[in-house]
Design goal:
- With 195 residues, this protein is mainly alpha-helical.
- The chain has a domain of 79 residues: Orthogonal Bundle (Helix Hairpins), CATH 1.10.287.
- The protein has 3 helices and 5 strands.
- The strands form 2 sheets. Strands 1-3-4 form a 3-stranded antiparallel β-sheet, with no helix packed on it.
- It is rod-shaped.
- It starts with a helix and ends in a 9-residue tail after the last strand.
């Protein structure tokens, strides 16, 4: 019986080996070995390329400017022209608004006319003072009359200086009709419109 057992055992081993080879051939897989290296995991690779990528951020929040500047008028009048659009980039010194300059131009012309009139009167008073100076030396007129003429000339000199200041003030007021950007930046909401 010992011989029969050995033959059976050899046949079972041969049949097992043949079965193992058949299964391995059909599945195409090799069984994992204990203690052996693991199978590599497949990965995708690509060539690195340098290029610009647009940066976009979508978020809920409030955007505030780093600094803001309010543009306000120094004179009153109708707004005749807006020289920009909301959100437009402007540079320092760009014209933003025009206020109706006609009343201020008229005030300037009036101040210049007053100056011209008073300068003519001053010149006349100076000539009269020179003439009276000669007449007072010859005693044809009194000292009091001469002093009165000189006082009038002095008063007219002060009036002419006041007229010059009025002309300068009118020029400044006229200049305020044109509002320029105090800084370089982007305009915000337009709160005033023509008219």
């Amino acid at each position: 019986m010992g011989r029969y057992l050995w033959i059976t055992l050899i046949l079972v081993l041969v049949a097992g080996f043949i079965g193992y080879k058949q299964i391995s051939a059909v599945t195409g897989k090799k069984p994992e070995r204990r203690g052996g290296a693991r199978r590599a995991v497949p990965v995708l690779v690509a060539q690195a390329v340098q290029k610009s990528i647009p940066v976009q951020l979508r978020a809920v929040g409030t955007v505030e400017a780093f600094s803001t500047v309010s543009v306000r008028t120094q004179v009153t009048g109708g707004l005749t022209r807006v020289h920009f659009k909301e959100g437009q980039d402007v540079k320092k010194g760009d014209l933003l608004f025009t206020i109706d300059p006609r009343p201020f131009e008229a005030a300037l012309k009036q101040a210049e006319a007053n100056l011209a009139r008073d300068m003519a009167q001053l010149e006349n008073a100076r000539q009269q003072a020179r003439r009276y100076g000669e007449l007072v030396k010859k005693q044809y007129v009194s000292q009091e009359q001469y002093d009165q003429i000189r006082t009038n000339a002095g008063a007219l000199e002060a009036i002419v200086e006041a007229d010059r200041a009025a002309v300068e003030s009118a020029k400044v007021q006229l200049g305020y009709c044109y509002l320029y950007s105090p800084v370089t930046g982007r305009t915000g909401s337009l709160l005033a419109h023509e008219g």
